[in-house]
Fold each of these.
Amino acid sequence: MKKIMWIAAMIPVVVTSIVLQFMPDTIPMHHDLAGNTDRWGSKTESLILPVIILVITLFWHLMICAFEKKELNAKTEKEQMEAKSSARVLGIVGITQAIMFGIMHYFILYSSWMQANTGGTKTTIDIAKVSCILCGIMLVVLGNFLTKAKKNAVMGVRTVWSMYNDNTWRKSNRFGAICIIIAGLLTIITTAFTNGMTGTIFLLVYILIAAVIAVVYSKRVYDQEKS
């Protein structure tokens, strides 16, 4: 899992290093909300995001190692399974975010290359729109994984009610996963027919609604379990 995560994180560095050989020395680096370019800079600045991806991946790597160590030192089988599940969840999250940020970076590189070669004053690709669609896909992927995840310390519907026992965890997170998947699908559909800013607003609204519904449901499951 960790090896796959690092491969996914290294690809943007390799791709960027190759692409920079064919790009002009100065490229667009920042745009305002309307898509107008408000800053140009050195093409080497394009390496910043790939480096950030590596730093984030290192964070996930250290977290995974911590839970793997906890799994080895676990005194009960339940603690061992929870630590193992946490490590696996972090691995999925690390791989997903590395791929998502990598794809987003490739779009940024392509947009910068196109604009630099045509001398345009506006971005050629709505990066915010691309980012929202990628976030929607990530929500769908993580939601599907959440339906199979055992109780863990890093991801899922983690409320005092859902953590009551294994049954409340399973029911709460299965329902929460459905909420996340729906939020992801709605984000993809909405963003496909709007611009990036509108898509971003809807993304945040969908996530908020999904979270509230999942929390309320976990309380309902807890009440049923207690009665």
Note: The two ends are 41 Å apart (CA to CA).
Amino acid sequence: MENEITMNNRPTIWSISGWIFGLALIVVGILNIFLVHPVPGVVYLLLSLVYLPPANMYFRKKFGFQVPMAVKFLLGIVLFLFTLGVSDLGDMIDKL
């Protein structure tokens, strides 16, 4: 998994899923900023950088490491459960 994009510039399943989950975290972060409190919103926005492929490539070039896929997967499950289960945003969704 050297590059996020294959030799013929076709996106891989990992880069597509990274974009989807990263954008979902950005949306949750923006909703938290406006509906709940700015602090969890900013945390969600910063955590979305772990999933977005351009930020992932920047971290790899700048710092020489990237977050392993297993850590991303576990972090995604924890964030999903936290958003829907414990956060105020999850309570707001339940009331709709």
Note: Residues 13-35 form the longest helix (23 residues).
Amino acid sequence: MKKNNDNQIRKTSMGARASQRLGNTVVYVILAIVTVVWLFPFFGILLESFRVETRMQVSYLWPQQYGFDNYIRLFTETDFLIWFRNTGIMGVATAFFQTFFILSMSYTLSRLRFKGRKTLMNLMLILGMFPGFLTMILIYKVFADAGLTLNMAPVGLVIVYCASSGMGYYVSKGFFDTIPTTLDEAARVDGATRWDVFRKVIMPLSKPIIIYTILMGFMAPWGDFMLASYIIHENSQGMNVAVGMYEWLSKTNLNTHYTMFCAAGVVVAIPVTTVFLCLQKYYVEGVTGGAVKG
């Protein structure tokens, strides 16, 4: 009787393992298919960037002639390096200032209790629901009067990106809420100021959320088109990569600049992808840590 029970348990265990392996195999196959579908456009852009023929519409997918002509033209015949430099400077500046503003606001709302705190949080939440382009006319008027358009557009865009960044406190505040307040109290007993607590106690424990905030701030200028095109106003010296590359998609330039556009897309993706891959561990930790408490 005991032997029959052992055999039955063994069969049940083997069946469970087989079922688990089958389920894992199905999941892996589905993930592989989704990955191929998701990466196919990027692979196609990479192939197009090496295609010598510049026409957009061709009857083949795999390039018949390879070459670096598009990359050579990109760096020698266009203002792409200026656009890339402008975007890189905006990305670094935005990442620095946004991180400082967001983390300062988040720490204040997480640790301090003052009159109107809840009202301020709710007000920022409501204001964040309105699309940013509603203020574009006013922003352009103010920046035009201050000389922050055209060539000086990168400076104006950094101001716009950072001015209201404190309203994006939600994830960072949630992360700070998970850090025990007893650490703050202990530091205050030892004579530390609020700034000392923030800089010497909280920041060393907040590496994931700091890197998450830096990454979000760095990536924002690379894809901004609507506001940037409005402030830059077709001035090549002040363009970022999104606005500059869009000029190549007009009807007059499409057949002569399409493959160069693909090459520029590959070059633009390199810094953002590299930074994200290097910091994705902290990105995930920052998002999940900030989602624990609100």
Note: The mean pLDDT is 81.
Amino acid sequence: MKVAIIGGGASGLAAAITIKREKPEIDVTILEKLDTVGKKILATGNGRCNLSNFVIQEECYNGDHDIIHTVLDDFDAVGALEFFNSLGLKIRDEDGRLYPYSMNASNVVALLKREATNLGVKIKTNCKVESLDSNLKINGKTKYDAVILALGGKAAPQHGTDGDGYKLLKNLGIKYQPITPALVQVKVAEDVKDLKGVRFKGVLFLRDEDDDDEKPIKFQEGELLFTDYGISGIPAMQLSGDIAEMTARGEKPHLNICFTPDLGLSDINEYLENQVDSGKVGPEILYGILNEKLSKYIFDKNNGDLNHIALDVMSLEFTATGTNGYKDAQVTRGGVGQDELEEWSLMTKKVPNLFITGELLNVDGTCGGFNLHFAWGSGIKAGKEVAGLAKN
């Protein structure tokens, strides 16, 4: 039995290793268009490689819940630890986030390549797949008994994931949900150039433009950073997938920042009144709680009106116009849904023995190792299914 895995990233390598462990006699070839496999893995976690997380829950993912269950029900945090341990990789736990003990992504790639090679996986680099037909013939030449599409999405194209997989899906008539960048910086309509570089801890709320309800769509708390075009930081990136979807539909979502989540409006008003009573004037009335640049921005915006200043400290509003592009994104939102796959399987309905993994599926996770966990899990799931074909 001949199997081709198109893409030598996390899910592709995990799939190849799983197939050879389950059925050593299967002929497995990884086709990678770059000069080496695992390049995107090297960039994860700022080069430290956030492999997974101890808290693997459905709530940590967006997208098709059936696919999430198909993969995660068979691959939880314990399963991830077992897989890494089988490679000889010792794991370090940082507040639930799992990293290689060396804190070096290159060790992860080296161990994956070694295991794949030792098991007899063939790795062909500088091998671009231009076409795949319904008979599983690649580039009009070699026919395979099963194929796994593990090309990734469009996020971080500098690491090889530039959307090739979507072209193959279209040619095969396999539909997928619209794609957008996710885990990426957010753009706003307002001029925030004077706030560039300002860091602070706060809460970021996402609201619909027509939402009069006080309850937000979502919110995230943590360290935020103003850029010359908008907002960055983990809370903004966590909400960016929703923002990209909304703005792609022509909506204008509102973002509200609370700079003092542990203080109420009455506390802020009392603080400001005390500052004025002590003789302070101008933006310095806010210096005790906010950065100087931020103090000036809020003071000038409200022409020194204390009531409006207090309201902006509690909930400064911006209008999101979109996000940065795929080059800056960590993951792609959208992709192939369960309606294109066999039940509880990663095999496509339209093309038997064709499997899809990773970012090409309509699943994306939050920051914290969840996307890489899904890549390992979907690769292992597809690998077991391919091995099952040979057993049957």
Note: The chain is about 35% helix and 20% strand.
